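Format notes (please read before filing issues)

Several people have asked whether sequences and structure tokens are stored in separate files. They are not. Every record keeps both together, in the order shown below: the sequence lines, then the token lines. Line labels are part of the format and must not be stripped during preprocessing.
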Amino acid sequence: MGGAGEKILAAACAGTSGLPYIGCMELHRLGRTSLGVSRLGLGLAALGRPGYINLGHAQDLHQDYDVAAMEARCHAVLDAAWELGIRYFDAARSYGRAEAFLSSWLASRRIAPRSVAIGSKWGYTYTAGWQVEADTHEVKDHSVAVVQRQAGESRELLGSHLGLHQIHSATLESGVLDNQGVLTELARLRESGIAIGLSLSGPNQADVLRRAIDITVGGQRLFDAVQATWNLLEPSAGIALKEAHDAGMGVIVKEALANGRLTPRNTDSAFEAKRRLLEATAARLQTSMDALALAAVLAQPWADVVLSGAATAEQLRCNATALEVGWDEEAGKRLITLAESPRDYWATRGAMRWN
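Then the structure lines:
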């Protein structure tokens, strides 16, 4: 797919209508990096391990957790992503075998490093032992020893395809942004040609990001990119994300569907009024709930990449229709009422069951 596949894709894009094709997303640079990325990306959190917190995850995997079966399923979704024109893929050391599955797909499909952008993350170690139910699914450690070990593991699996390495869920409490040993190690990785980023979680995403924007090592700003949660339920980091984008950082948005809470799978009676508003707006714009929620993020001018967390090819293709949604001012005004307080949102997310 790296050679002939590129020619087929180029031919498919060479239509005469002048209209964009879903399968032909225009590539653009991620911030100040040399990485060419598509507007829609694919995150592998739900594809690399048996258990995850997305609503209906067990249903998506048909409760078949055989390693070979999960690798084949992951490859099928990656194939669908490639056909759609997705050229940014996001993994992490704590996503079970996600990096290994991605690596075997890159090799088997003969994807050239220059034709795709790959990001991964360090700072959490997977500890679930390939079980859905575990006392602890991942352990957080933002020490120098962990960044050195996990950077080496990621590079061993992904080789020259690895273009972006990110701190996984940086927080002020972990002290990672004040750890000079870690910052020096990240600067060393950056000098080797890998872009450096950080992902964010929790109600204080904006505070962490503003701290990160100001960090320099050797007179140069350290962070090239940020990955944060922004969705219709949790838009609190929006102003800070715009500031980061204006400062030259690439912006990647995760959890655009709020781990399934912004899809028809959310049958919580307490969400009923919000669901009706989403359904009515989706009907007016002739789209689905999930595509509507993704379109809300794609409409943000500072969002360089919006990640789909799809666990099936069908879900991904549905997600990709967000690129065709005619998002308008009325939708923005009506759906802003869905926002929860950051603390309520993150408390709800933290209580979601691994399945």
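For reference, the curators noted about this record: The mean pLDDT is 93. The chain is about 40% helix and 15% strand.
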